[in-house]
Amino acid sequence: MSAIASLFQEAARLAAGFRERAPARHVPRHDYAASLAAFDEPLPAAGADMAEVIRQLATDAEPGLHFTTGPRFFGWVIGGSHPVGVAADFLTSAWGQNAGNHVAAPAAAAVETIAARWLLDILQLPAESSVGFVTGATVANFTCLAAARGEVLRKAGWDADAKGLFGAPEITVLIGDDAHTTVFSALQFLGLGHDRVLRLPTDPMGRIDPAALGDALAPVSGPCIAILQAGQINTGGFDDFIRLIPGLREKGAWVHVDGAFGLWAQASEKFSHLSRGIEAADSWATDGHKWLQTPYDCGYAIVRNELAHRRAMTIAASYLPLAAAGERDPSHYVPELSRRARGFATWAMLKHLGRDGIAALIDQCCASARLLAEHLQREPGITILNEITLNQLILRFAADRPDDESDAITRETIAKIRDDATLFAGGAKWRGRDVLRLSVTNFQTTADEARRAAESIIAAFRSVSNDSRPH
Ligand SMILES: *Cc1c(COP(=O)(O)O)cnc(C)c1O
């Protein structure tokens, strides 16, 4: 066997071993400090054998790896890195394509063109939209909002892409109070400021209050960008696009939607009622590495007005071949020039699952979230705080006790769940109080897995609340 073949086989063997071994614990044995200790050595003077390096990497990294690829990982909102996406990503790395333009990487550019069309189809967004393949929803929000910034100022007679923001007409930025923190980062990167925004009040699900939007909008006359949300990180809540978008349109506002995971409700007949009217927006940010289960890093910046998208992102240089009419250069839609060919993993996931498989994936995650909630709320002392409309669930323990006590018990129960290590879930703050957050975003989280997770959570809570009773 050639050296390359045996090296690649070794990597594949190690990767499959990690995925197939049922972990004894669903949380890492190593924290950051222990992982640091495992790797900490001076820069080696002499090199090492290729296969040895890869084996050592696996040995030293594995104790510090989260089992995010498994069925009982409910932390943050993290997809499962589906094997087909992983295999496509192996090839992507092996091929070493620079996906910047269609001359340097014809197949990568072509696959992005097709994957973009399929994404617009499954997400039921306007077919004329352009799609940038970015690292994730953070950069997707940034990219879409860059297009928004350019276009609302262009309409006011100002070329922001050329002249910047000094001297430009002011832009009113409207955003819900429960928007994701990364959207505020995007505004910061764009010179729009994370505090220089009008934050709109929200309801208990984190949805913008339509009346408050109306009030905020009334005095607006100049350039305006409104940022709505599909899938609030804690509650899974969706803004009411049908009620919100027409008034914004009347004012000539650019409407952007952060749908990092929630946009995928569009792919399911059972859940697309949540996102009704979303196609009337101007841009949408979403992730591949959450609900589509591609490996990290993979997100999509989708913009209805292709020219506005391209104006904001195009890197023009004389040595770069221009795309002819009908050709598509991947770099025209993203901030980077040289980059990974992200379209291959996206294409592979869409091809493997198909329309029906994606709908079934969304439905299974949501059904498992509902089942988790049903089991958990039967336990006295567990209070589910959100309506389970999608895949997100937040709850509090001992909510009948004073807030501070309930906070403490909630935190202790989360710690106990981690110690028990049959699942992983994290804490969050919601309306200033501690909550346990469960996100069902893994293709393997079946009803059985959800039931098992619920039992473990209940057992952890019982043990904590027995300990916390006054003796
Ligand atoms: C995850 C998430 C983001 C950020 O996405 P990344 O993929 O982490 O960059 C933005 N908005 C929402 C609602 C999210 O859930």
Automatic annotation (TrEMBL):
Modified residues (N6-(pyridoxal phosphate)lysine): 290
GO biological process: carboxylic acid metabolic process
Cofactor(s) needed for function: pyridoxal 5'-phosphate
Keywords: Decarboxylase, Lyase, Pyridoxal phosphate
GO function term, MF aspect, one: carboxy-lyase activity
Keyword Ribonucleoprotein (UniProt): no
Family, as annotated: Belongs to the group II decarboxylase family.
Protein name: Probable pyridoxal-dependent amino acid decarboxylase protein
